[in-house]
Amino acid sequence: MKKNGIGTLVSRKKRGRTVSFLIVITSYIIMQAMMSTGNLSSLFSGLLVPLCCYIVAAIGLNLNVGISGELNLGQAGFMSVGAFTAVSVSGYLASAVPNPVIRLIISIIAGVIAAALFGIVIGVPVLKLEGDYLAIVTLAFGQIIKSIVTNMYLGFDENGFQFSFVDNKTKLAPGGKMLLNGPMGATGTERISTFTMGAVLIILSLFIVYNLIFSRSGRAIMAARDNRIAAESVGIEISKVKMLAFVISASLAGAAGALYGLNYSTLVPAKFDFNTSILILVYVVLGGLGNMTGTIISTVILVLLPELLRSMQDYRMLIYAVVLIAIMLLTNNETVITKMKMIQKRFSSKTPGDRAAG
Amino acid sequence: MPEKRLILDVKDLGIDFGGLTAVNDFSMQVYDNEIVGLIGPNGAGKTTVFNMLTKVYQPTRGIILFDGEDTAKKNVVDMNKAGIARTFQNIRLFSQLSVLDNVRTGYHNRSAYSSLTAVLRLPAYYAKEREIDENARELLKIFGLESEAENLASNLPYGAQRRLEIARALATGPKLLLLDEPAAGMNPQETEELMDMIRLVREHFKIAILLIEHDMKLVMGICERITVLNYGMMLAEGTPAEIQADPAVIKAYLGE
Do B118 and A211 touch (CB under 8 A)? Predict the structure, then answer.
């Protein structure tokens, strides 16, 4: 069997892990350097935090879709839960915890817990079933969450919290503060998200996802994806391992949403709609299912592309679509893949160490 | 000769699918460290019996005692934990995992550690992973697959895939191994090697083996006892010599 040159399966995957950490750390250092020297346009530096959010949400989604093999069409719903939880917590704690970094961390943790709880509530009944039920239920979840947040009014004053649904019936004493304002969402949020926190979240999520993949649980998750019946026959509880992947995926979306929400002074619930879910899924599919490095790269390209093309005005969405289609065709074309492998082989066959693997 | 320990005791097992009775009144015993064959014409219900023993199907009637314990409330995962491992008629490997990872997956419950241990890379993770790795490579060596360890399971040749499936089943540490047509699609020489391998597995792991097979040379060559199934009913039971001479069996296979 000819396999020398490309390297072994395991070493290839582990190399992918190192590469993705390196990419994140180097780009973080470069961006920081550019920002401090003033070489980064304000448009571009404003994109950094949302970019980090999308990367974290996409890494989480890739764990669920690529590694666990379950389609999730409601990642934006979990982001929404994380975002509005974090914004409310941050708004409530504004005077109690003046330090923005600590408040940011507390808010993100709150967002993660809220999103994980929703993940558990959805996952427990749905992941017992075999088939595409998760896709249907998460699709509905995304829509329901959007409607709920759009109709939710939450405020607090010195007497405690006031909550109402559909109509704003809250009557706050002077000095009180509205946290959620129905269709207007969260307004007057203190912008405490930082690019550093974004980079930390990306590294944390890569750390969690990779450590999980290269472990007993990760093997069980992939085994359940590859062959359900065989996985059960070796003693793997399918719903349990699928649940693990799904809840971690939801939690990462919650963290991403929290960071996103605290990056803007105004956040409307409609931001996290079905289109956002699909957008994140597109990042994952284009980057390659189960391929975290690919996910990061494709997210960066697809988030920055519309902004870089802004000067083209009317044509930018057209070009965006063409690039999408081109990437899809190229990454799924047999001829291109074989050519790429040949090039890869030619390069790596010059390194003698790999030969031993064959 | 000392009395052998009874591993599997099946009494009056039966299953209905809607109005169709697929298997009825099926009884058999497997003793420790024994090789038993389950044969019968196509559609006799052999794989259905395997699926009931592993609880892929819940039997409608009857009792399965495994190692003296009633298994009525057990599911597929429980049966594997109790000590039944199996292979499949149409090979079911984890195709996108490496050969080594396929076997490592078999240690899921034997060398267990929590996912938190994995994410935080606690010392227990390294200890358990080393243990899994050593055992898995040992198993691959026995099955002549050590040179393929890092390859994708789906890239293996057919015969090697069958061997890998057996290795994965053994990794779960069974007391009883169920082999569903292990020689299907193999040429006579490969079948010969498989027979040696099954004997070796029995000696090395000290387990009982129950196998379904159409290759009569294999069945008659390695099984100590044989049960014949026809139309979901037990037709005969006995040593290979007795089965070969049984007129009912000959009639079922060849017609009158």
Answer: yes
Does B54 sit within 8 Å of A234, measured CB to CB? no
* pLDDT for res B252: 84
| Beta carbons of A86 and A261 less than 8 angstroms apart | yes
Record: contact B155-A235, CB cut-off 8 A: no
Residue partners of A189: CB distance under 8 A and separation at least 6: A87, A90, A91, A261, A262, A264, A265, A266, A267
Contact A236 B129 (CB under 8 A): no
Phi, psi of A159 (to 5 degrees): -90, -5
* Residue A291 burial (CB count, 10 A): 17
pLDDT tens digit string along B58-116? Answer: 999 999 999 999 999 999 999 999 999 999 999 999 999 999 999 999 999 999 999 99
Does B26 share its domain with B38? yes
From chain A, the residues in CB contact with B53 under 8 A are: none
Contact between B45 and B22 under an 8 Å Cβ cutoff? The reply is yes
* pTM of the entire predicted model: 0.90
Report DSSP state, residue A208.
H
Tokens representing A143? 């829509």
CA of A125 vs chain B CAs: smallest distance (Å): 18
Interface confidence, given as ipTM, is 0.92
Is the same domain home to B71 and B129? no
pLDDT of residue A355: 37
Residue B202 forms part of a structural domain: no
Position with higher pLDDT, A320 vs A198:
A198
- A9 CB neighbours in chain B (<8 A) are 98, 150-152
Parent domain of B29: 1-83+175-195+208-256
pLDDT digits (tens, 9 = 90+) for B194-240: 999 999 999 999 999 999 999 999 999 999 999 999 999 999 999 99
Q: Which residues pair with B179 in a beta bridge?
A: B211
Q: C-alpha dihedral over A205, A210, A213, A216, to 10 degrees? A: -100
Q: Say if residue B110 is in the same domain as residue B130.
A: yes
Q: Is residue B59 part of a domain?
A: yes
Number of domains in chain B: 2
Predicted local confidence at residue A306, as pLDDT: 81
- Residue B127, domain member (yes or no): yes
Contact B86 A233 (CB under 8 A): yes
Of chain B residues 90-129, which have a CB less than 8 A from chain A? 92-98, 100-101, 104-109, 111-113, 115, 118-121, 125, 128-129
Read off the CATH number of the domain in which B13 is found: 3.40.50.300
- B4 and B79 belong to one structural domain: yes
Whether B77 and chain A come into contact, CB under 8 Å, resolves to: yes
Residues B59 and B113 occupy one common structural domain: no
Over residues B205-215, the pLDDT tens digits come to 999 999 999 99
